[in-house]
Amino acid sequence: TExxxxxxxxxxxxxxxxxxxxxxxxxxETGDVLVRLAPQDRPARLREAQALLAQRRMEYEAARSxxxxxxxxxxxxxxxxxxxxxxxxxxxxxxxxxxxTTIMAPIDGLIAxxxxxxxxxxxxxDPVLKILGLDPILAxxxxxxxxxxxxxxxxxxxxxxxTGTEVDGQIRYIAAEADPATRTFRxxxxxxxxxxxxxxxxxxxxxxxxxxxxxxxxxxxxxxxxDDGVVGVKVLG
Length: 237
Hints:
The chain is of the alpha+beta class. 22% of the residues lie in helices and 35% in strands. The chain has helices at residues 42-68, 74-99, and strands spanning 2-10, 15-20, 27-28, 33-37, 102-104, 109-114, 121-122, 127-144, 156-161, 166-174, 184-191, 204-207, 223-225, 231-233. The two termini are 56 Å apart.
C-alpha cells in the first residue's frame, strides 16, 4: 500500500520556531496551522514598506496632476510611476514574508515526521514536517506484460492485506511504460480509507478482473454418473 500523496513541507522564510501546533501522528486538514515562526522585525519592515508606498502614491498623484496641466515632463511622470510600482512590490514581498512565518497544512493527512522543535532555527528550504495523504490509499503492484491488455481503468479489484483486512477498490492507473529491469507494469488500485486505518507500506495481495466469458451455472444436483464413469447432466425430455 502507498499513501496517495506524500508532502514534505519546507520553510519558505527563515526564523526561530515559536509554536508547534501539530504532533507526530496527528491528523490535520487543509489550512490547519502547523508551525509558527517568530516574527522578528517583519512587522516593522512591513510598516516601513507601507509608509513608503503611501509617500510614493502621493508623489505619483501630484506628478500626474502637474503632467496633465503641462507642468511636468512625461519622463518625470514615468519615473514617479516606476517608484510607485517598486514600493507596491516591496509591500507585497514584506506581506508574503510575514505570512510565510505561519506554516499551514497543504492537504488533509497524517503527520508522519516532524523535523523541528520549539526554539530551532530554520532557513529557507529546510524541511519542517512530512504529511501522508491516506484517504484514499493505493494498493500498488506490478503486472506481467502478458496481462496488460486484460485489465482496464475503472475496473473493480479485490485487495487482501496481510493484516487480514479485505477491501475492494478501483483501478485508477496502469503504467504505459514497463520497468526496464523486470518488464512489468505498475498498476494502482484506489481504496477509500476515511479512518486512515490502512497504513502506508502494508503487504497486500491484489485480485484483478481480467476477461469475461459467458457461462451457465450448473448445480451439482443435476449431475449424474453413467455406468461407464462419464459425468452427465439430467435433462427433461
